[in-house]
Specification:
313 residues; Rossmann fold; two-stranded antiparallel ribbon; alpha/beta; six-stranded mixed beta sheet
C-alpha cells in the first residue's frame, strides 16, 4: 500500500527553537527580507546547516518525544507523530512512501520548503537514526510550489487583483496539485493532507477536497490531519459519509462564468448560488468554492472544455 502525505509549508520554521538555538545569522532579518522578496547569498545554505545542527542536538538527547517535537519545525513535528501514532481504528501507523512539501508562491515559502527538504533528508547524518526522527529518502520527497498561492494588498495599486489571482490561479493550481497526487494512488492507498503549517487560507479548500475526493467510490482513502501547537496527538479529520452529485452541477454556467459571454441574464438556481458571485461590473463569476469544484470537475471529467484564460501552468 502506498501512502502519500501532502504537507503545507509555511515560514514558521524560521522561528523554531532548533534553528534559533544555533543562530549563526539573524533569522528575524532573513524573515523580513523574504517577506519583501529578497534574501542574501548563502542564507539558505547556512540555515540548512543550522537547523540540522539544532535538530541533532535535541533529537540526540534523551528528551521526551513531546519536547523534541516542540523545538522542531511544526511540519517535522506533525510528520513524526504521523509515523508513530496509532490510527483511530487502532491500526499501526502507515509508512510514508511519498512526501510532498507544498509551498506558497513566495520567496519565503520556497526558502522554507528547501530548508525542510534538507532537514527531512539529513544528508550529514546529524540526527541519530534510532531517535524517532522522521528521516526521509531524497527520492521520496517532492517540492511543489503553487503559482498564485499568495495574497497581499501590499506593494500593489490594485488590491483586488491579488485576491483574484489567489482565487483564479492559486486555488486552481492547488486543486490540480492535490488531484495529481490522488490520481497516482490506487483504491487501497491513502492520501493525507497535513494542514499544520502553511497558508491558512488553504485550510477550507483542503477540507473541501478531502470531502470531495474522499467520498468517491473506488478511490484511495483521504484524510486531513493537524497538530495543534504543543499537543501530543494529531487531530484527524476523516471524510464525512456523503457523496457529491456531479451530474447536478450547472456545467454551462460554471464554464461561462467569468468569460466575455453575457451570463448576467442567466441567474443561477437558488440551490446553485454558492457556486457564484458577482464582480463590480455585475459579471457573474465563480465563487472560491465554485472555482474549486469546477477545477476538480474538469480534472475528473477532462472532456469538458476548460475556461480559456485559466492559468494552470
Amino acid at each position: 500500500m502506498s501512502h502519500t502525505l501532502i504537507t503545507h509549508i509555511g515560514v514558521s520554521a524560521l522561528s523554531c527553537e532548533a534553528l534559533r538555538s544555533v543562530q549563526s545569522q539573524n533569522y528575524d532579518r532573513i524573515a523580513e527580507n523574504l517577506a519583501l522578496g529578497s534574501e542574501r547569498p548563502a542564507a539558505l545554505e547556512i540555515a540548512q546547516r543550522d537547523l540540522l545542527r539544532g535538530l541533532g542536538r535535541n533529537w540526540g538527547r534523551s528528551m521526551q518525544p513531546r519536547q523534541q517535537r516542540m523545538v522542531s519545525p511544526a511540519e517535522i513535528a506533525a510528520v513524526s507523530l504521523l509515523l508513530t501514532e496509532r490510527r483511530p481504528d487502532d491500526a499501526p501507523p502507515l509508512p510514508i512512501t511519498r512526501l510532498v512539501l507544498l509551498s506558497s508562491d513566495t520567496r519565503g515559502g520556497e526558502f522554507c520548503a528547501r530548508l525542510l527538504e534538507q532537514a527531512f533528508v539529513d544528508p550529514e547524518n546529524a540526527i541519530p537514526q534510532k531517535s524517532g526522527y522522521p528521516h526521509m529518502a531524497h527520492e521520496q520527497l517532492y517540492i511543489a510550489p503553487i503559482r498564485g498561492l499568495s495574497i497581499t494588498d501590499e506593494h500593489t495599486l490594485d488590491p483586488a487583483s491579488t485576491r483574484q489571482n489567489f482565487v483564479r490561479n492559486g486555488l486552481r493550481n492547488y486543486v490540480r496539485a492535490v488531484y495529481e497526487e490522488y490520481r497516482a494512488l490506487g483504491p487501497n492507498d491513502t492520501l493525507t493532507l497535513n494542514i499544520t503549517s502553511g497558508f491558512k487560507g488553504l485550510v477550507p479548500t483542503a477540507r473541501d477536497l478531502a470531502l470531495l475526493l474522499g467520498s468517491r467510490a473506488h478511490g484511495p482513502q483521504v484524510e486531513m490531519v493537524y497538530l495543534y501547537q504543543s499537543s501530543s496527538e494529531l487531530v484527524r479529520y476523516a471524510p464525512l459519509p456523503m457523496s457529491f452529485v456531479w451530474d447536478d452541477l450547472p456545467i454551462t454556467l460554471l464554464r461561462e462564468a467569468g468569460t466575455d459571454i453575457d451570463t448576467v441574464a442567466v441567474l443561477p438556481k437558488r440551490s446553485d448560488a454558492y457556486l457564484f458571485e458577482y464582480q463590480a461590473s455585475q459579471r457573474l463569476q465563480r465563487s472560491p468554492i465554485g472555482e474549486v469544484i469546477w477545477t476538480l470537475y474538469t480534472l475528473l471529467y477532462p472532456g469538458v472544455v476548460d475556461v480559456p484564460h485559466a492559468d494552470l501552468s
